[in-house]
Amino acid sequence: xxxxxxxxxxxxxxxxxxxxxxxxxxxxxxxxxxxxxxxxxxxxxxxxxxxxxxxxxxxxxxxxxxxxxxxxxxxxxxxxxxxxxxxxxxxxxxxxxxxxxxxxxxxxxxxxxxxxxxxxxxxxxxxxxxxxxxxxxxxxxxxxxxxxxxxxxxxxxxxxxxxxxxxxxxxxxxxxxxxxxxxxxxxxxxxxxxxxxxxxxxxxxxxxxxxxxxxxxxxxxxxxxxxxxxxxxxxxxxxxxxxxxxxxxxxxxxxxxxxxxxxxxxxxxxxxxx
Length: 274
Description:
Elements: H1 3-10, H2 37-50, E1 55-61, H3 63-66, E2 76-82, H4 88-104, E3 112-118, H5 119-123, H6 128-137, E4 138-143, H7 157-164, H8 167-180, H9 183-209, H10 216-226, H11 231-242, H12 248-270
Helix pairs in contact: 1-10, 2-4, 6-7, 7-9, 8-9, 8-12, 9-10, 9-11, 9-12, 10-11
């Protein structure tokens, strides 16, 4: 039996969901390895110093929140929730802060990333996918946990589309970055978009599979089950996340062709229930 078939015995409909079909979050504060606590604490303190009047809360998501982070290879992904919109000057300060934290903790994490959202936008019922992201994928490490107000959530095409439906914009940015990237920048650019493609592919089949997972290797298996002809390509993306190739043309062409395929088919596939 092939690896994908073995995985799909486990990854059957209902995986990651409770008996009523609601998402079971796989993140928690208890799962955060203590080795990342100093970096998280300093990040929060620096954010408080810079934005003490506007900072509402701070969240960790990604591999650190799932307890699956690997030192030197994983990012520390943060979301800062603000009261009101940041100015262009404040956004520049935030970007500078993320760079300084990344440099200070380069022996532990590949990068400290700080995403931004606003309180009003998040709690607006029209943007329930934003609250779903906080509820199911994030751990509050400072301030009021807005996620506690929301949920539970079932797998819906709107969540799939809102979480990863920006593939067209992301593809354009990724190809532009790859073309201009230095040798040092090329590797993280490749790894970042390889992750994005896999998450996008999974989102295309999430609703019909009725499988919830945030782990890339599991997301890959779910997608391959529905698109077996894409298996070789997906396995290549997984390899590139660990160790990108040095041939820029190969990376560029694969990203372009598969990114364009995802753009052309995403909405139709994400809306399919069977």
